[in-house]
Amino acid sequence: MELVPEHYRQGAEEVRQHLVMLRGGAPFLSPQCALQLIEWFDEDVGVPTILVALERAAEARRKKRSRIPLTLRAARRHLGKAGRATLRKGTDRSLQPLANHYAATDDTALAALCDELRAVEAADAERAMAMAMGLIRTFLESAWKGLRPGERERHLAAAQEDLGDLLHDIPEVDRPALVEEVARDALRQRYDALSAANVWELISP
């Protein structure tokens, strides 16, 4: 591990956190994902590009109702493609448009997140991306863990119903992870503007 550059470790942690946010499940990168990540870093692929590719891969899986686990390799074909941004940057390269998108919210946690996003300085785009996505991931994870008693079970049950016969085609041991991924995805759709694609669109040079 001592041979791994520090910026590789920092980047890997960002990617790991994002992958776990998208799919739930094991809080670590598989050996295959780790090797893929090192290959990308060696090719100077930036963390924002990888995060956007992961989100594109997750969206593609949602549309195709894929039963294959979300991995970095699943994101390869999306690497370098434009993110599916729904917001457009202003002249100041700030996250103000994202915060304004939720200006009417009565969700105190979401309002607090918006205040934090407004304070992110975009002078160093990749650093700002890391800060903003860290805040967003914390918010979304808290939203998942903070579901009221019975509400998470309803999300999981709805996800299982949505997957339907697809669950019969995968080993039983893998089914809970896939159900959780679909349930988490449904929750994130409530906050669909909180994406790496939008953040990078707003603050990238």
Brief description of this entry?
With 205 residues, this protein is an all-alpha fold.
Write a structural description.
This protein has 205 residues and is mainly α. It contains nine helices and no strands. It has helices at residues 6-23, 31-42, 47-64, 96-101, 108-118, 125-145, 151-163, 175-188, 196-203. It is globular, with a radius of gyration of 17 Å. The model has no long low-confidence stretch (mean pLDDT 89).
* String of helices and strands: HHHHHHHHH
Indicate the proportion of strand residues.
Answer: under 5%
What is the C-alpha radius of gyration, as a whole number of Å? 17 Å
Calculate the terminal CA-CA distance, rounded to whole Å.
33 Å
- Counted up, domains total 1
Largest sheet: none
DSSP, total strands: 0
Poorly predicted residue ranges = none
Record the SSE blueprint.
Elements: H1 6-23, H2 31-42, H3 47-64, H4 96-101, H5 108-118, H6 125-145, H7 151-163, H8 175-188, H9 196-203
Helix pairs in contact: 1-3, 1-6, 5-6, 6-9, 7-8
Main attributes of the structure:
mainly alpha, 9 helices, 205 residues
